[in-house]
Structure formats: C-alpha cells, structure tokens
Amino acid sequence: MDLLPVIPSPLDKIWFFSLLGLAAAIAIVARPQRLILIFLVLAGLLCLWDQNRWQPWFYQYLFMLAAIGVVWWKKNGETRSQQQALNACRLIVASTYVWSGLQKLNASFIRETWPDIAGPWLRLLPEAVRKPPQPFILVVPVLEVAIGLGLIARRSRDAAVALALATHAFVLALLLCSGENTVVWPWNIAMGVFVVILFWRDKAAGGEIFAVRNGLHAAVLLLFAILPALSLFDLWDSYLSSALYSGNTDQAVIYVDPAAIQRLPAQTLPHVWQKSQPFFLDINRWYFAELNVPVYPEPRVYRRVAAQVCDYAGNSAEVRLRIKQKPNPLTGARESEYYDCEHLSN
Prior knowledge:
Blueprint: H1 11-28, H2 33-49, H3 56-73, H4 78-103, H5 107-122, H6 134-137, H7 139-152, H8 157-178, H9 185-199, H10 207-210, H11 215-226, E1 251-255, H12 258-263, E2 272-273, E3 280-282, H13 283-291, H14 299-312, E4 320-324, E5 336-340, H15 341-345
Antiparallel strand pairs: 1-3, 1-4, 2-3, 4-5
Helix pairs in contact: 1-2, 2-3, 3-4, 4-7, 4-9, 4-11, 5-8, 7-8, 8-9
C-alpha cells in the first residue's frame, strides 16, 4: 500500500525471522494461543506492505491456523470447539479443490497452461501420445471439482482422499520433472497431508462442514466458498479464488526499447526478450527469479510494477504496459489494454 511507510532495514529482517521463530514455537508449545495471535497479527500486517504475499497457499495456511487458534482460547467445551475448527479447515480445503477445478474450465488452460506444466513429462512419452485430444485435458479440472465435492459428501470421502493423494503425487512428479515452480512443491505435499488428517475415516455429515458456529467459520465460508465466484466477473482477486496455474488470470508484459533496456537494473535483463522485436520484460519470470513466487496477477499490481520500470527508464515514451485480460472461457481469446508511462504516473 502506498500510504504505508517503507519498512527500514534491519526491521524487515527481524520481522521475517520473528515469524519463522513463532511458527517453530507454535509447533512445540502446549498451549500456543498467544503465539498464534501474535503470528497472525504480524503476518497479516506484513501482507499489507506487499500484495504479492497474498499467494494462495499463504492465504490458506493463515486461515487454517486462525481456525486452530480459536480452539486454544476456549475454556469450556473444547471437544466441540475442536470439531468446529476442523470443520472450518475442511471447508477451506474442500473449497480450494472445487474452485481450483472450476477456474481451470477454460480454453486457455487446455491450450496453454496444461501443455506448459506437463510439457517436460509429455516429452518422455512416445510421440503418438504426446498431444492428447484437447477435450481429454478437461479431465484435470473435472477431477479437482470431483475431489472437493467428494470430500464434502460422507459416503465418498475416503475415495476422494485416495484420489486426492494420487493427484498430488502425479502433479508433484510433473513439477519435479520440470524442476520449476519449486514454491508449490511443499503446497502439494501439505494438501495431501491435510486431506488425510481432516477427511480420512471421518464419518461426520457433510452438512456440518457448512454449519456456521462462530464468526471465523462464517468468514471462511464467505472467503473460500462464496466470494471466489466473483472472480469470474473480475470482482474478486484471482489468487484469492484458487486460480493459480488455471490460465484464468490477467497476464502482462512491459514493452521496452533498446535505450530503455540499458537503464534497467542488471537483475531484470535475463528476463527481457531481445531476440526479436518487440522487446519486452516478462514480469512473471522476473518475479520468479527474485522471489521464487509468481507475480500476483492483478492489473493494479502490473501497473505498479510498470510504473517502477518507467522510473528506471526515465519515463521513456517507448515503455508500455500491455495487460491481457482473462481469456474467453470458450475461445481463449484475450482483450488487451495498454498504458504508457504518462498514464501510469497519473
């Protein structure tokens, strides 16, 4: 947020390592309620300084930790409060599967995102089967939706857990084969652990997962099950709606000319396409190189990054930001909007 002051050094490092220390302490202390509260406050405040921290896994972990923390504040009826906390966590996990699948039901995922993710693995297969029919790729999002719904329904819960574990093992194998996107490797493992802990052999009725017993559960229902629907109409952020690697997000590049390239910081140069015109800076690759996370894919973030590039380039008229909007679900076509430095500075 522009209204917040820059966190000076070494306070930023102290803040970060304090969070790591708190996380370790929470795991070993018998009643960590105060530690959890401090962690949530510090982590939440830190997120205000940088929206790129709003990654889907961090968002999920934060609310699951908050649900667990509520248990420790209960003086009476701990068994019931524990069940309520588990149900809140179950709702988060199940909703994440459902919305992750729904976000992938688009032509861009079928034609671009999935081939990119699965490419290293597909190249190991015989040439005759390297390119499966595009409708066959729809199995991926449908499977995710089925897992989420299966976890909610009591009769299909164990089968959904087994299917989820197989899916995460497959996805992790793809990621290991590519050697990229290391930031989501632990998330895949964590999701496999979560489904076992929260759903395996659990006989509670599915409706209990949605039963709102406290304010936190109401917030979880709203944030993870309901508001993601608004992302389909650009009224809620994509990454808060389980749209990671879905193809259903805004994309952006920054066009630069040779003179502007010479003024950019050295660490950006490996991510500038210079083999042929138009030359452009790949924002997502730049973020991965600097932070090992994808850029938070919202137009306001892209505009902010481009404004910084304009500063580096002396507000050159040859620097332009191109934002490609979310794809048409059926055709994959994207409309584009352009900004020059003059517009970005206003």
